C-alpha cells in the first residue's frame, strides 16, 4: 500500500510540475523527497528507482550540468536534421506578427489576452457609409445584367464608386482617402458581396495592390502623386504578380527587369528594361497604373556588385511604350475585370520602383507583408457576405415555398442544410470581424490570414451549395430573377486566387505556423544559424518543457482533471475549456510530427494539412467565443453557439484522429491517441434538435435572423429590385398567412370548396365566396400570394437569345 501511495504521489507531483512547466528543479525535488521517503518508510525498491530518476533529471535537466555533455550532442544532431529554411521562406516566416495564433500553438492559451482586444465598434462616419453609400451601390446591381448583358458594372455605379471614395478605404484622409478601420473595410465588402463583381472591384484596390504598397514602402513623391489619384478613382490600379509559369509559387516568376542606360529626351537615364507576361490580373483591362513584380538583374553592375537583386516591385503608367494591356480573361461565373499583361523591352526609370532604388530586391518581403493583412479581409469578407446573403434568401425561400401543403422549411431535409448555413455564417461573421479587430489593434496576422482565406472560402462553397439545393429549380434557371446562380458559379474564383486553397491548407497554415507561431522553433533555428550553443540550450529545453507540459495538460484535461479557468459565462466556458485541451493536444502532436519526420515533414502535406485543420478549427472556435462574449446575445443565439462550437470541435478531433491513423510511426500514433484522447473523442456532430431550432429561427422574422443578416442590403429603395427585402417583408406577414393557409386548405380537404380550386388564389376566392374568410383576409392573401408567386417564378427567353452568332442557330422546328 505504501508503494502504491508513493507511486501515485510521484505521478501526481510530476504531472503538476509538467502542467505548470515549472522546470527540472521542482521535478527533481518531487522525485528526491519521495525517493527518500520510500527508503525511510519501508519501500526501498521504489525509493531507489525514484532517486535514480532524480539523478537523471538533475543530469539532463539542470542547465549547469546538461550544457557540459548533453546540449552539445543535441546541437550537433539538430544541425544535421533541421530543415533548411530558404531566403524566400524566411521572408515569409518573418512577415506579419504572432498574436492569438501563438497562444493556440502554446497549448496553454491565455483567453484573457484574446478578450483584451477590445472592440471599439465603427465610427459614426464608417457606420453612415455602411448604411447609405454601400446600400446605394448594392442597389445598383443585378447579377444577370452585370454578368450577361453588360459584362461589367453599370457606368453610373463606376461613377458612384469613384465619387464616394470606395477605392480609397485604406488611404489616409491626408491624401483624400476614407482611412477606414479594418472592421469597416470588412463590413463594406460583406455588404457589397451581393455582387461578386462589385465586391472584387472594390476589394482588390483596397487589398494587395499599389495603394497598400505605396502606403508602407513608397517614396514621399510617389505617395503625393498617386495616393490622391487612387483615392478618388482618377487612377485605377492593378498588380501583376502571377503568370503562366508562376501561380502559387510566386517566387518563381520568370519576368525580368535588367538595369541599363537609355537616352530619354536627349539625356542618358539609368533605368530598367522589363520583359514580362502576366495572367489573371484583376482590373488589368481598365487599369491606368500597373504594379508589377519582376526579378531584377544588374549584369553590368551599374548599381553595385550584386548581379541578381531579387524580386522587385515597380509602378508603371498604362501608356508606357511596349506594354500590351486591355484584353480580358473570362472568369468563371463573374465578369469582373481581369486580364493579361505583356511587355517586351519596356523601359522605365529607376524611380518607378516602389520605394525608389533602395527598395530593389525587397519585393517579396513587401508582398508577403501586405498579404498578411489584405488576405485577412478581402476574400474572407466576401465569403462571409456571400454566405450571409445566401442564408437570407434561402431562409425566406424555404418559408414561402410550399410543398405537400407545408413550407419546405418544416421539412428536416431542408432544415439540415439551412442550419448548417446559419452556423457557417455565424462562424464566418465572427472570424472576419474579430480578426479585423485585432488588425485595428496593430496585429498583422500572417497565419490567421491563411486560415480565414482557405476556411471561409470553403464555407462559402458549402453554403452556396446548400443554398442551391434548397432553392432547386428556382436557382438553376438563370435570368434577372435568379439572384443566386451566377454567384454560385463564380465560387471557384475565391477558392483559387490569393493562394489556392489546396496549397494554403496543405503547406501554409501549419508549415508557416509551426515555425512562426511556435514558442521555440524559430529560436532553435536562429541558434543553429548563429552557431550559438547557449541560445540553443535555452530554446531546446524550453521546448522540452513545453512538450512535457502539453502532454500532461492533454492527458489530465482529457480525463476531466484540472480544467483551466476561463473568463467566459457558463454557456461558453465548456467550449473554451475543451478548446484549451485540444490546443495542448495539438501542440504535442505538432512537436511529435516534426520530431519524428524531421525535414521530410515538408513533403508530408496530408499530415501537415490535418495539423493545419486542427489549428484552423480551434482558431475559428475562439473567434466565435470572443464574439459571443462581446455581443448582445439575442434570443436563439445560444443554440447557434452550441451548434457552431460543436461543429468546429468535432472537426478538430476528426483531424487529430486522422493524424493518429496516418503517422508513419504507428506506435507514436497510438501513444498520442492515448494521451490526447484517453477516453475517446468527445465531440459528435451537432444534434438534430439544434438544427431544427436554428432552421426555424432563420426562416422566420426573428432576432436571430436579423442579427445574422446585419451588413447586408435589405432596403427596397435601390435602382434594382432587392429579393431579400421581399423575403423579409413576407416573413413579417407569415404568421397571418399561415393561419389563412391552414383555414383554406382545411376547408378544401373537407369538401367545402370546389374540387377544381387547385391554385392558392382560386381557393382564396372560393373561401371568400363561402364566407370562410373575410374580405380583409382575402385582400391580404391576394397581395401575399402575388408576391410569393413572383419570388418563385423564373425567367424565359427568345429561342435564339443565348447564341452570340445567330447564323449558327439550328431551327429544329422551322416549319
Automatic annotation (TrEMBL):
The record's InterPro entries line, in alphabetical order, gives:
Acyl-CoA_dehydrogenase (IPR050741), Acyl-CoA_Oxase/DH_mid-dom (IPR006091), Acyl-CoA_Oxase/DH_mid-dom_sf (IPR046373), AcylCo_DH-like_C (IPR036250), AcylCo_DH/oxidase_C (IPR009075), AcylCoA_DH/ox_N (IPR013786), AcylCoA_DH/ox_N_sf (IPR037069), AcylCoA_DH/oxidase_NM_dom_sf (IPR009100)
The yes or no answer to whether the keyword GTP-binding is present is no
Q: Which SUPFAM superfamilies match?
A: Acyl-CoA dehydrogenase C-terminal domain-like, Acyl-CoA dehydrogenase NM domain-like
Please give the cofactor(s) recorded in the UniProt entry for this protein. Answer: FAD
Acyl-CoA dehydrogenase/oxidase C-terminal domain: from which residue to which, for each copy?
361-501
User: What are the residue boundaries of the Acyl-CoA dehydrogenase/oxidase N-terminal domain, all occurrences included?
Assistant: 124-233
Q: Which UniProt keywords apply?
A: FAD, Flavoprotein, Membrane, Oxidoreductase, Transmembrane, Transmembrane helix
Organism expressing this protein natively = Halomonas kalidii
> In its keyword annotation, does this UniProt entry include Transmembrane helix?
yes
Which pathway? Lipid metabolism; fatty acid beta-oxidation
Protein name (Swiss-Prot/TrEMBL) = Acyl-coenzyme A dehydrogenase
Residues in Acyl-CoA dehydrogenase C-terminal bacterial-type domain copies: 515-797
Q: What is its EC number?
A: 1.3.8.7, 1.3.8.8
**TM segment ranges:** 29-62
Q: Which reaction does it catalyse?
A: a long-chain 2,3-saturated fatty acyl-CoA + oxidized [electron-transfer flavoprotein] + H(+) = a long-chain (2E)-enoyl-CoA + reduced [electron-transfer flavoprotein]; a medium-chain 2,3-saturated fatty acyl-CoA + oxidized [electron-transfer flavoprotein] + H(+) = a medium-chain (2E)-enoyl-CoA + reduced [electron-transfer flavoprotein]
| Acyl-CoA oxidase/dehydrogenase middle domain mapped to chain residues | 238-337
Record-stated family = Belongs to the acyl-CoA dehydrogenase family.
Amino acid at each position: 500500500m505504501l508503494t502504491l501511495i508513493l507511486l501515485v504521489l510521484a505521478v501526481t507531483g510530476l504531472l503538476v510540475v509538467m502542467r505548470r512547466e515549472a522546470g527540472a528543479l521542482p521535478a527533481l525535488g518531487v522525485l528526491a523527497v519521495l525517493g527518500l521517503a520510500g527508503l525511510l518508510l519501508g519501500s526501498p525498491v521504489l525509493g531507489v528507482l525514484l532517486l535514480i530518476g532524480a539523478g537523471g533529471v538533475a543530469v539532463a535537466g539542470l542547465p549547469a550540468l546538461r550544457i557540459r555533455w548533453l546540449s552539445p550532442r543535441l546541437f550537433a544532431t539538430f544541425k544535421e536534421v533541421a530543415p533548411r529554411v530558404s531566403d524566400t521562406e524566411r521572408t515569409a516566416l518573418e512577415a506579419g506578427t504572432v498574436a492569438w495564433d501563438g497562444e493556440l500553438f502554446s497549448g496553454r492559451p491565455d483567453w484573457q489576452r484574446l478578450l483584451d482586444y477590445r472592440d471599439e465598434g465603427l465610427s459614426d462616419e464608417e457606420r453612415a457609409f455602411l448604411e447609405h453609400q454601400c446600400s446605394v451601390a448594392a442597389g445598383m446591381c443585378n447579377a444577370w445584367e452585370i454578368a450577361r448583358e453588360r459584362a461589367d458594372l453599370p457606368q453610373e455605379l463606376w461613377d458612384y464608386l469613384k465619387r464616394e471614395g470606395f477605392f480609397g478605404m485604406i488611404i489616409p484622409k491626408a491624401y483624400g482617402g476614407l482611412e477606414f478601420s479594418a472592421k469597416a473595410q470588412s463590413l463594406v465588402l460583406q455588404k457589397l458581396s451581393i455582387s461578386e463583381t462589385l465586391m472584387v472591384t472594390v476589394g482588390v484596390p483596397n487589398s494587395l495592390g499599389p495603394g497598400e504598397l505605396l502606403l508602407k514602402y513608397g517614396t514621399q513623391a510617389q505617395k503625393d502623386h498617386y495616393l490622391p489619384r487612387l483615392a478618388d478613382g482618377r487612377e485605377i490600379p492593378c498588380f501583376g504578380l502571377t503568370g503562366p509559369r508562376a501561380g502559387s509559387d510566386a517566387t518563381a516568376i520568370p519576368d525580368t527587369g535588367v538595369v541599363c542606360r537609355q537616352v530619354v529626351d536627349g539625356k542618358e537615364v539609368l533605368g530598367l528594361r522589363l520583359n514580362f507576361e502576366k495572367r489573371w490580373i484583376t482590373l488589368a483591362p481598365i487599369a491606368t497604373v500597373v504594379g508589377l513584380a519582376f526579378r531584377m538583374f544588374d549584369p553590368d553592375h551599374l548599381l553595385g556588385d550584386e548581379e541578381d537583386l531579387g524580386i522587385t516591385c515597380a509602378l508603371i503608367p498604362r501608356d508606357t511604350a511596349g506594354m500590351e494591356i486591355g484584353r480580358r480573361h473570362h472568369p468563371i461565373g463573374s465578369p469582373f475585370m481581369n486580364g493579361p499583361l505583356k511587355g517586351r523591352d519596356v523601359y522605365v526609370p529607376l524611380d518607378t520602383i516602389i520605394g525608389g532604388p533602395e527598395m530593389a530586391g525587397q519585393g517579396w518581403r513587401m508582398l508577403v507583408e501586405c498579404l498578411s493583412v489584405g488576405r485577412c479581409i478581402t476574400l474572407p469578407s466576401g465569403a462571409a457576405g456571400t454566405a450571409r446573403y445566401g442564408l437570407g434568401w434561402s431562409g425566406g425561400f424555404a418559408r414561402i415555398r410550399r410543398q405537400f401543403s407545408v413550407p419546405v422549411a418544416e421539412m428536416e431535409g431542408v432544415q439540415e442544410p439551412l442550419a448548417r448555413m446559419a452556423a457557417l455564417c455565424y462562424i464566418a461573421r465572427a472570424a472576419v470581424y474579430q480578426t479585423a479587430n485585432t488588425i485595428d489593434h496593430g496585429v498583422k496576422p500572417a497565419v490567421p490570414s491563411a486560415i480565414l482565406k482557405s476556411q471561409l472560402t470553403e464555407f462559402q462553397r458549402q453554403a452556396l451549395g446548400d443554398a442551391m439545393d434548397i432553392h432547386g429549380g428556382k436557382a438553376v434557371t438563370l435570368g434577372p430573377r435568379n439572384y443566386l446562380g451566377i454567384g454560385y458559379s463564380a465560387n471557384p474564383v475565391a477558392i483559387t486566387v490569393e493562394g489556392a486553397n489546396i496549397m494554403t491548407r496543405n503547406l501554409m497554415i501549419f508549415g508557416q505556423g509551426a515555425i512562426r507561431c511556435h514558442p521555440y522553433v524559430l529560436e532553435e533555428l536562429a541558434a543553429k544559424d548563429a552557431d550559438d550553443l547557449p541560445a540553443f540550450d535555452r530554446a531546446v529545453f524550453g521546448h522540452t518543457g513545453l512538450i512535457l507540459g502539453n502532454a500532461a495538460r492533454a492527458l489530465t484535461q482529457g480525463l476531466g482533471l484540472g480544467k483551466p479557468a476561463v473568463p467566459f459565462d457558463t454557456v461558453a466556458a465548456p467550449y473554451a475549456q475543451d478548446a484549451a485541451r485540444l490546443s495542448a493536444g495539438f501542440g504535442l502532436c505538432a512537436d511529435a510530427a516534426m520530431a519524428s519526420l524531421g525535414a521530410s515533414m515538408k513533403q508530408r502535406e496530408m499530415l501537415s494539412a490535418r495539423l493545419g485543420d486542427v489549428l484552423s478549427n480551434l482558431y475559428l472556435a475562439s473567434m466565435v467565443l470572443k464574439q459571443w462574449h462581446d455581443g448582445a446575445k439575442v434570443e436563439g443565439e445560444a443554440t447557434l453557439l452550441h451548434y457552431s462550437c460543436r461543429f468546429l470541435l468535432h472537426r478538430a478531433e476528426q483531424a487529430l484522429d486522422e493524424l493518429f491513423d496516418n503517422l508513419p510511426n504507428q506506435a507514436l500514433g497510438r501513444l498520442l491517441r492515448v494521451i490526447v484522447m484517453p477516453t475517446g473523442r468527445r465531440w459528435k456532430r451537432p444534434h438534430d434538435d439544434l438544427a431544427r431550432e436554428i432552421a426555424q429561427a432563420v426562416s422566420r422574422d426573428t432576432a436571430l435572423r436579423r442579427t445574422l443578416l446585419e451588413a447586408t442590403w435589405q432596403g427596397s429603395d435601390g435602382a434594382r429590385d432587392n429579393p431579400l427585402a421581399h423575403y423579409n417583408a413576407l416573413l413579417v406577414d407569415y404568421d397571418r398567412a399561415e393561419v389563412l393557409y391552414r383555414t383554406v386548405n382545411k376547408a378544401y380537404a373537407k369538401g367545402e370548396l370546389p374540387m377544381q380550386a387547385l391554385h392558392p388564389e382560386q381557393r382564396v376566392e372560393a373561401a371568400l365566396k363561402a364566407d370562410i374568410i373575410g374580405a380583409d383576409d382575402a385582400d391580404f392573401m391576394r397581395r401575399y400570394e402575388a408576391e410569393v408567386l413572383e419570388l418563385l417564378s423564373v425567367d424565359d427567353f427568345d429561342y435564339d437569345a443565348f447564341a452570340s452568332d445567330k447564323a449558327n442557330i439550328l431551327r429544329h422546328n422551322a416549319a
